[in-house]
Amino acid sequence: MAASRQTLEEERCRYQELFEFAPDGYLVTDMEGIILEANSAAANLFKVSRSWLIGKPLVVFVCREEHFSFRARLAKIKNGNVVQNQNWELDMLSAKRTAFPVSLTVSMVIPSMRGTAELRWLLRDITERRKMEEELQKADKLESIGVLAGGIAHDLNNFLMVILGNLTLMKSYTREGSKAALFLQNMEEAVSQTKNLTMQLLTFAKGGKPLTKAVSISQLIEENSAFALSGSKTRCAISFQEDLPPVEIDPGQITQVITNLLINADQAMPEGGTIEIHAKKLVIGENSTLPLQPGNYVALTIKDEGPGISSQILPKIFDPYFSTKEYGSGLGLTICYSIVKKHGGHISVQSIEKKGTSFTVYLPVSSVQTEDDADEDVLILGEGKVLLMEDEEDVQQTVHEMLTFLGYHVELAGDGAEAVRLYQEALVSDSPFDVVIADLTVRGGMGGKMAVSELIKVDPDVKAIVSSGYSSDALSDCKKYGFYDIIAKPYRLQELGQVLSRVMQGSKK
């Protein structure tokens, strides 16, 4: 008998320890929902002491909107038989009246000690799980936006290709210095700005990979700062270190980063102020605390005189969908962070409340010099036989006219299968093509990537140029897929002539 009592006592102590040290909240209530016992986790959950909980109705910790459903469930339990592990989720309140989501599991038991039915409640805070679910939903939405944005950008770049191609053709027939030439130049610049907008759309898309080249960061800042701050009360104070080396970047994507940071700085100073922009050379060593590979970088800093960001908020500033009044909302800074990271760079933020905030963007220095801007307007004529693979009829017609103007003989293919057939026929007839220009994506047909892999089987020395209005791995690393060079839509007559000249001379990108 004594042994039996000892065993019971040991079991009771074991139960008490499990009850006390359980990681989740555990409550015992009567059938009316009045709290009889509570463990430490439950007290912590509601931000009160255990003794304060005893005697309180559990419903007082339930959000007002959930009172009716909670009482209805409690009534069903009271009126029914033994209930085991009934589970549901609802929002509860701490003593500070802060709401948080909880998973509730309730069971009815009749303990031998008290002899009356009781309810035992397991309470689990599911705040983190809810956050994860919300982030997954946002990620799904973002993926959908990415697919939509990629499609829109692709179509828009095809439209711009027709406009820009015909504009540059018209300029070639117009007397330099005439009013008509001036009007056409203004139109061309407007199309170039629209092209930058499509690059922003492509950043949402999965394929928004950077197409890098050597670029002067000082020139990029000077070209875009006035545009980003047009109509604002702020002014820019720009200072660059002398002999600043070019950086290896995608100018469209980094323009988006710069524009976003400038607009954020402007919004932080609604009454006006000064935005300081600095750039300097920087060598990152093996022991650097920055998450960068050792090497040479340019550090670009954009600093405002706004109210600053609190130390609690600062670590979250690049989180998706996190926002502050001063620094915009949604995905702006997240996209900036993503773009810079894809470039092998880094973006950091420092802020002092009431004194302002500064963002520093670290970009890798290019191993080559920037191309002379004057060279971009050089029109290079040529001769040879070009196979143009393009499924959009308007684009096909425009590029055909551009190639003909440049001096090339052109044959057309609507998809990859037709391009492979025409190429094979030309080889057999001893009248081979000198160059193939292949659109990357073809609706309902073989695209450029697969077409070139088939062409290489026919002719390992095929010279193919990949063209697309959608930034992808084939554009960012064209040699990997067998292409000689790339030309991203929309492109000008001069760009087309220069790329063809490079390829005809056997120079790979």
TrEMBL record:
Q: Which domain of life is it from?
A: Bacteria
Recorded catalytic activity of this chain's protein: ATP + protein L-histidine = ADP + protein N-phospho-L-histidine
A GO term, aspect molecular function: phosphorelay sensor kinase activity
Please name the InterPro entries in this protein's record. CheY-like_superfamily (IPR011006), HATPase_C_sf (IPR036890), HATPase_dom (IPR003594), His_kinase_dom (IPR005467), HisK_dim/P_dom (IPR003661), HisK_dim/P_sf (IPR036097), PAS (IPR000014), PAS-assoc_C (IPR000700)
Residue span(s) of domain PAS: 11-59
| Keywords, sorted A to Z | Kinase, Phosphoprotein, Transferase, Two-component regulatory system
**Segments forming domain PAC:** 86-138
Q: Which Pfam families match?
A: HATPase_c, PAS_9, Response_reg
Q: Which Gene3D superfamilies match?
A: 1.10.287.130, 3.40.50.2300, Histidine kinase-like ATPase, C-terminal domain, PAS domain
Please state every residue range assigned to the domain named Response regulatory.
385-504
Q: The Histidine kinase domain covers which part of the protein? A: 151-367
Q: Which SMART domains match?
A: HATPase_c, PAS, REC
- Residue numbers carrying 4-aspartylphosphate: 439
Question: Which Enzyme Commission number(s) are listed?
Answer: 2.7.13.3
Q: Where is the signal peptide?
A: none
Free-text function comment from the UniProt entry: May play the central regulatory role in sporulation. It may be an element of the effector pathway responsible for the activation of sporulation genes in response to nutritional stress. Spo0A may act in concert with spo0H (a sigma factor) to control the expression of some genes that are critical to the sporulation process.
Task: Show the PANTHER family listed in the entry.
Answer: SENSOR HISTIDINE KINASE, TWO-COMPONENT SENSOR PPRA
What name does the UniProt record give this protein?
A: Stage 0 sporulation protein A homolog
> Organism, per UniProt?
Formimonas warabiya
